[in-house]
Amino acid sequence: MPVSGPAAARGDKPASTFDWAKILLNGALPLAGVLVALAIAGIFLALLKTDPMTAYGAMVDGALGSTFGLTMTLVKATPLLLVGLGICIAFRANVINIGAEGQIIMGALAGAIVPLSMPTAPGWFLITAACVAGFASGALWGFIPGILKAKMRVNEILSTIMMNAIALQFMNFLLQGPLMDPENVKRGTFLAQSARIPQQAWLPRLVPQTLLHAGLILALVLAVVVYIFLWRTTIGYEIRAVGLNPDASRYSGISVPYNVALSLTLAGGFAGLAGVVEVIGVQHRLMDGLTSGYGFTGIVAALLGGLHPLGLIPASIFFGGLLVGADKMQRAVQIPSALVTAILGMVVLLVSGAGIWARRWSAKRLAGGRRPAAGAPPDGSQRVAAFPPPGGSQGAATADSPAAGDSAIGAKS
């Protein structure tokens, strides 16, 4: 449908038109960041007198060269995908959730306590109850910094980081006391882990004699659900609108505090669900170190996926393979574990930097392609044009989304 009126006079694109240059940029830059990180790591490998090609060959073989490697890649990708879905929702509202580690812990606690407290209940009930309780626990842990941000403007980065520490200490207290495995107490080992959950509460295996479980299917289904939620519902539209311009959203009648709190609450819920999946799908008990850094790696996976739920699927699989392959590389070429950590850290740093650069490039491109509105700064720094006022006429201007594939937000999807 052709664009008419003021938007056509300014040369704006219709709301349904994809900006292919932006899509390619958002996809290519994070990938380039990964390649640069691997190139820099190759220099360090060479300094250690290790052939970089041999090392990276071992990494690829470890992630993709066997049934075990493939399934472990998908096992690692599952919690990353769940955490990343919450990150996508939070970032769309322009809030940063650094608290996924603590939210995973709270979800894992609920995912262990529910089956342990009802050991004779049927499996379908235990799995469902554990997932619901884990999502609710993680959501509560995200709601607290969300409401502090919405009502008191407390910086969500600081509050979510502090919530991580509280959750970790709470788990340690329970594992060294009420939740400690009674068998360990009898043997005098006093390991910081709970008793094994009932077997009927374990997630079904997708491939026999592997750790690949049905949580992967749940995560893939939820990725589609989150995509529909963000781009095909009114609430999702409001979350994205608040992220692009809270002032214009407020003028349009959208509750900014509500959507900020909601986005962090949902982000916490998905991270909590990741904790449940690890307990009932992989570990089958609660233990120290269960998060394995998924809360932070999930942020980078979300950035690599362009903050898009569907783009997050291949990004999570890639990082899952990177985690599995790095272990194989360390064993194959006998490099220090610190170097493996440094390689992953460089990937995180450069992918994050590429995402920031891509968003700034998109903002400059948007500002340069439109005439500033009356009273707007001459540099075109406004991120979004006016939304239609409540009960008023539809506004003509639209704004580009910060991630690949996002159509203009001026029209509700």
Describe this structure in words.
The protein has 413 residues and is an all-alpha fold. It has a single domain, classed as ABC transporter involved in vitamin B12 uptake, BtuC (Orthogonal Bundle), CATH 1.10.3470. The protein is built from 15 helices and no strands. Helix 2 packs antiparallel against helix 15 and helix 6 runs antiparallel to helix 12. The longest helix has 32 residues. The N terminus and C terminus are likely disordered.
Give the SSE map.
Blueprint: H1 6-10, H2 20-47, H3 52-64, H4 67-92, H5 100-117, H6 123-152, H7 156-175, H8 182-187, H9 215-232, H10 234-244, H11 246-251, H12 256-283, H13 294-304, H14 309-333, H15 337-368
Helix pairs in contact: 2-15, 3-4, 3-14, 4-9, 4-12, 4-13, 4-14, 5-6, 5-7, 5-12, 5-13, 6-7, 6-12, 9-10, 9-14, 10-12, 13-14, 13-15
Features:
mainly alpha, ABC transporter involved in vitamin B12 uptake, BtuC, 15 helices, globular
Q: What order do the SSEs take from the amino end to the carboxyl end, as H and E?
A: HHHHHHHHHHHHHHH
Task: Tell the overall outline.
Answer: globular
Question: Mean of the pLDDT scores?
Answer: 82
Q: Total number of helical segments? A: 15
Q: What is the straight-line distance between the termini? A: 15 Å
Largest sheet geometry: none
The CATH architecture term is Orthogonal Bundle
* Integer-rounded radius of gyration: 23 Å
CATH-derived topology? ABC transporter involved in vitamin B12 uptake, BtuC
This entry's quaternary arrangement is single chain
CATH class: Mainly Alpha
Beta percentage is under 5%
- What structural class do you assign from the helix and strand content? mainly alpha
Number of domains: 1
